[in-house]
Amino acid sequence: xNIKQAxxxxxxxxxxxGSGWFLDKQGSSRLPASASTTGPDSFVEDINLAVMDDxxxxxxxxRAKHMTHFPNEExxxxxxxxxxxxxxxxxxxxxxxxxxxAATAGDRIWLLGAVDIRRPGTAADGAIxxxxxxxxxxxxxxxxxxxxxxxxxGNRYVINALGLKAYFRTGTLELLSRVRxxxxxxxxxxx
Length: 191
Prior knowledge:
Elements: H1 3-29, E1 42-52, E2 58-70, E3 75-79, E4 82-86, E5 92-103, E6 109-119, E7 128-138, E8 143-153, E9 157-167, E10 172-183, E11 189-190
């Protein structure tokens, strides 16, 4: 090795050692990494949650494409939530929405944006279809409510209202105000 090559080698060695020392000093000056105090701490893809009563009977099923947990808000954010409320007599209310949020305790589910509620027909009652938005569901009470406009469609009627309470246990819909409807396509009623 000649003097020129030895000098170049020594210079490269000093650069490598100096770079290592510099990077080491940079790394030790950083603060330790910590988890976000305001952001999510976990997420689940394609969730399918079944909630049972004390006797092991299905009360409701919640499905969503994506769920994110926010611990500081005690909140679950849901994308494309799909809920089945199951009554003891076998009646099922199927509810879908664009997005939603649920309390981590499971006692409140807020369906946000457009909400579609369907109950298949039975021998005693025909099918019911409700279109509304921003619906609060209280699964333990088998109740859902909104202050927004709702359109209820059955086999022989269409009813529009402002505000709605759905009592899943009894299959009753309470229309809160500005109720207008058409029955058998033969007229317009107000209430």
